[in-house]
Recover the amino acids of this structure.
């Protein structure tokens, strides 16, 4: 059976280990989930913005990793900066482990020159992790003939419903046709073990991203013109390192993206294709991760959907423009 096998794997390697390190969920459309990528993006669009994201990773393993995101942000004159709120629910092992993040962030933008601005952001997070003990299947519960029929002798965890606070920070720099940023998440490196083991921490995550917008028709960046946007992202969390590099091609509200994701330890991981639409105040995109590692036949890649809606802007005109980075 597939599900008992999955739950056993989670039990042995994730849920109850005395010595282990967590890892954040990842998104292929990271610019469609900007507040998750970097807290300095809060209010970067100036006008109020609502963003929704859904990711189903490894669908062949029956809801092994399902992640939902929702965020809202905008610029507020009363605080002279961008304010954002982000919610994430991540379900592992068909709901065996559920993680909920509630994040609040503030970002301040400094106009350095007429064509270059810097934004610094800070984020406070409340995180809750829940373990559904009754969904776990241990080796001593399985009979070779009749399947799962026994009670386990494994010890119930000390804290199957764990909550803690965390902090993150980020920096953005952007001009007319370029942008770059760095972010550090989990500054506090909180302990997330269900057995309160001090060794099972959530390591700091370091992110760097950079990109350009190159007009292919005309000399200026205008909506509706053909544009090419190469981008690069690097992430490191504990011993895990990952590169995402690729490009977007956009014209008249349609964007196509082509990406390669490489895990340093496991070489090339996935080729990502994306198709998105931008019409007036909303954006919608779908992407699919084509697994090119040895796990291709076992996982069937990943599906991801993003949606964003921009509300009418009620703020005064700013001394800087909204950052021009990809929508997806």
């Amino acid at each position: 059976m597939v599900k008992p096998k999955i739950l056993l794997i989670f039990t042995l390697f994730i849920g109850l280990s005395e010595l282990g390190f967590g890892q954040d969920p990842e998104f292929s459309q990271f610019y469609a989930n900007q507040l998750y990528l970097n807290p300095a993006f809060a209010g970067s669009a100036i006008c109020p913005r609502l963003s929704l994201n859904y990711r189903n990773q490894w669908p062949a393993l029956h809801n092994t990793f399902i992640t939902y995101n929702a965020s809202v942000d905008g610029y507020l004159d009363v605080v002279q900066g961008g304010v954002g709120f982000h919610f994430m629910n991540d379900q592992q092992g068909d709901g065996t482990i559920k993680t909920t993040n509630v994040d609040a962030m503030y970002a301040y933008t400094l106009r350095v020159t007429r064509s270059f601005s810097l934004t610094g952001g800070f984020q406070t997070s409340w995180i809750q992790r829940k373990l559904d003990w009754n969904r776990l299947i241990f080796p001593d519960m399985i009979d070779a003939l009749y399947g799962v029929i026994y009670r386990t002798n494994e010890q119930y965890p000390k804290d199957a419903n764990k909550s803690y606070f965390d902090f993150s920070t980020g920096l953005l720099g952007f001009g007319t046709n370029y942008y770059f940023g760095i972010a550090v998440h989990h500054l506090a490196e909180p302990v997330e073990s269900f057995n309160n083991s001090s060794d099972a921490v959530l390591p700091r995550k370091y992110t760097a991203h950079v990109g350009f917008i190159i007009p292919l028709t005309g000399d200026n960046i205008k909506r509706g013109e053909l544009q090419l946007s190469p981008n690069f992202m690097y992430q490191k969390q504990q011993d895990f390192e990952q590169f995402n590099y690729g490009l977007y091609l956009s014209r008249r509200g349609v964007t196509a993206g082509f990406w390669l994701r490489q895990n340093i330890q496991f070489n090339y991981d996935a080729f990502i294709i994306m198709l998105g639409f931008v019409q007036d105040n909303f954006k919608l995109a779908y992407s699919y991760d084509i697994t090119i590692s040895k796990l291709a036949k076992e996982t069937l890649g990943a599906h991801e959907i993003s949606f964003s809606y921009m509300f009418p802007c009620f703020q005064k005109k700013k001394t800087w423009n909204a950052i021009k980075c990809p929508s997806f």
Notes: Residues 2-310 form a domain with the Porin fold (CATH 2.40.160.40).
